[in-house]
Please model this.
Amino acid sequence: MKSWLLSVQQQLSRQVLSNKLPHALLFSGVSGAGQEELARWLINVLLCQTVFNEDKMAQQSVIQACGYCKTCQLFSSDSYPDHLTIVNDKATIGVDSIRKLSQFFEKTAHIGTAKSALIHHADTMTVSAANALLKTLEEPTSESFIILTTDSSDRLLPTIISRCQQIEIRPPVGEKLLLEYSKQGDDAFVNLSHLNELTDENSALAFTDFRTQVEQYLSAYEHRTEILTTLVDRREGFRWLEKVLVDLMREQWGWQTTERKSGQAIAVNKQQLWQIYKLVQGASTKLKTLVQVNRQFLSEKLLADIGLVVKISTKK
Ligand SMILES: [Zn+2]
Model:
């Protein structure tokens, strides 16, 4: 668990122990702040059959699921029948998923008494999905818990937010953040938007690969397909592209940044880099502000536009 989640865990533990946990909670924060792991911890605590051991609880400020009961075992292998996880990190969560959730709560629990659902990236719900969820939030069944996570709570309907207890997770910034991940402390420009790459090794590796691919794209028009896949499939794809470009610009101005592994010189000059950066920013803004935007088309067009700026031949 990330160290900064402790105070939130303590608060939620007190609520659980005093039976004051609401039916619906919203965990928000920047990407990588830990909303997903916090949600899994809380749900496991709520479902575990042996966690409510009175004298154990008296000393602990943070409750923990036992980890060995039948419920905990099934939950850890994602096969607990009284829990439903809804996730769609590619595009949107549609109304069908939310209908499934309502039906799920209508049935009685198979094993314990509590039922739970987790909606990751709740901000990607379509309007009709969000409206369907509102109904479920308004008519909670007993012993049911719905937890929503998001890294863009400003894109959630206010009516959804108002029906949840919202917990905003605030990771440390600046030097404190670097201290948490001292191995990455060489990047002078690290900030909260890079939290995912700092805290998750797979993300870090994927980002490093992506950086190399973009650098080679700018030099030799290679890896178009891989870059396109990242832009289309990963939520952070566009931000990553911005970060790579910013790093390259800093490098050209002789500013300190993380070391570049490929070692290749970049074939584009400062002016071209700046033009490319503006293109990426423009596409990013479209992605954030337009409701019906075709991510695939937008990404393909962006890569083609970048190619035009670099004026590299497209014969490959
Ligand atoms: Zn357990």
